Amino acid sequence: MLKLNLPAAKLKIERRKDKLFVWDYIRLRWIALTPEEWVRQHFSLWLTQYLGYPQQCLGHEISLQLNGMKRRADAVLFTPEGRPTMILEFKAPHINITQKTFDQIGRYNMVMQVPYLIVSNGMQHYCCKVNDEGIDFLKDIPHYTQLMDKNR
Questions:
Q1: d(C-alpha 123, C-alpha 38), whole Å
Q2: What are the pLDDT digits (tens) for 41-84?
Q3: pTM for the structure as a whole
Q4: What's 101's domain CATH number?
Q5: Is 68 contained in some domain?
Q6: 94-123 burial by CB neighbour count: b if 16+ within 10 A, else e?
Q7: pLDDT score, position 132
Q8: Quick one: DSSP state of residue 8?
């Protein structure tokens, strides 16, 4: 798999016949190792191991209803009280992040109404703070303590 613009992650990878699987430490099960999953696993480990995000507050593949249709956010960060506070959307490294990607996460946020959005393809990362006027792009992805201080 491609080297990402993220710290190296020690992932548990297993080959079954001709297919690779990765242990998802959030869902606690083996997941087919696609390029998008490669990004999700690396990014989630970066958040939890380097930026202080509590593993128990992060969920992968979170279901939501959008205009009567089932959708799934790639990842959602919840507060310790269980309120969603951040939606994360991942793309494979070879997929460019475009306005379409931001439109997708924006539609998810119409349902979840969180203050933070992150989009990453493993090479480029964007973090936005949602406010009454729209969104502000942040220079860096905040440490968890900064995020919770700003969210109060």
A1: 12
A2: 999 999 999 999 999 999 999 999 988 899 999 999 999 999 99
A3: 0.94
A4: 3.90.1570.30
A5: yes
A6: eeebeeebbebbbebbeebebebbbbbbbb
A7: 85
A8: -
